[in-house]
Amino acid sequence: MKLCLFLKGVFLAVFILIFTPSVVIGQNNNPFVVVIDAGHGGKDPGAIGSFSREKNLNLDIALKLGKLITDHTDATVIYTRKSDVFVELNERAAIANRSKANLFISIHTNALKSKSYSGTETYSLGLARSEENLEVAKRENAVILLEDNYSTRYEGFDPNSTESYIIFEMMQGQYMEQSINLASYVQRNFASQCKRINRGVKQAGFLVLRNTSMPSILIEIGYISNRAEERYLNTESGKKAISSSIYNAFVEYKEDYEKKLNGKITQRAEMISVDNEETEVAEDPVETIKTTETTAVSKSRSTETKKNETIYKIQIIASVKPLKKNSSEFKGLKNVDYFKDKKWYKYTYGATSDYNEIKSLKKKMVDKKFKNAFIISFKNGKLLN
Ligand SMILES: [Zn+2]
To answer: What's the CA gap between 100 and 260, in Å, rounded?
Structure first.
């Protein structure tokens, strides 16, 4: 009898909880939840650079981004990992689904055998339209080979087989448009704030995005395989610029979301602008730049983009001897790049495919007392005359 009364009480309590309007929070009062996913971790280092590892860079950026969002907006931030631990790909998506997140942002760092590639790209889920994009997805998905029973868990998905990726053709999905919008905000902020080469908004079959039921993107914050970019990503100012660019994109996205939901923006969060001009550079383990290249092929460590795309740079100095990176010849300018042309070490600044941008950069360099600075161009890594 007592038990029966107790059960009745429990039922009543549950009934009240479910049906009392004051307990049911309206959609509009729900906080905006964003899940930030630092790629790799623990036994999985991700891509390995000359002095740093992808998993650590991803985590740094994820934590910095999360802090910016928590400090400046009313959104709730959930991390898939906050320390150096291994988290399975499926679990990352499950965390986002369980917390009914409005957005999923996965942070990664790119790598290629060709060390000259640099720049940022942001992916949404979809079928890769180029071999290059497919390669990025294959490399990122290969993480599952470190998981137990991955074949059962991912229903026979083989991260290395191109055929496995056909399924992504059907996965354009309802969140495609929103994901692409956010991805383009991210890329635009990267290009303007971080002065990174913009490799664009892309699609590919990332397993970590496949199982999320909300708009989701995967950001490649730069190439750890490129020495100059690896150094940049490891500087405090580089990390600050990268994380605040993603933050700004998040704010833009959230405003769109609120306008759609409520017809107005409920909270205007401050955008953060980063002056990236004087980027401090982390200690380069190699003091003097060495190269064995003797032809006019660019040994640039920071740029090489799509096939047949012309990349412009400003040549500021040429020297028969290699200069130290803190040489007074650079007049305090950081992120100076170089290539070897016959006996000359030619030092350059900036890299873009936009001719107007390089023209205004050239003016800046002349103003900075590089009187003889001039524009040079590269195609497929080769210096053009
Ligand atoms: Zn990765």
So the answer is: 19
